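Homework help board

Subject: predicted structure for assignment chain

Our instructor gave us this sequence and asked us to write out the predicted structure in token form, then describe one feature. I got the tokens but I'm not sure how to describe them. Can anyone check?
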Amino acid sequence: MSKPLQSFALTVCIAALSSLEMTSVHAKQQCAAAIPTNPQGQWWSYRLIDGRKCWYAGKPMLSKSLLEWPTEVSSEPGSRGEAKGIVIASKPGNPLDAR
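My token output:
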């Protein structure tokens, strides 16, 4: 191989490996509230995140930055499509008034 072709091949390999590494760094693993009832031979570990046990498939001591809780779906609508909950209305007022 000629020198420029070797240099180019090395550059392409380094770029490919670094892009693979970046993808794995940015991929976060979802937390589970409990170990599944049938772990199917997988190793399960947990880290305390936000005061709760975050269970994940894998070896212990995975970096907390690689774990995340799944985003919660908003509350389910009532039977008529209305949101459940209590709404407290307040009178508009001057925020500078002392109470």
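Reply (TA_rk): Your tokens look well-formed. For the description, you could write something like this. Residues 3-68 form one domain. That's the kind of observation they're looking for.
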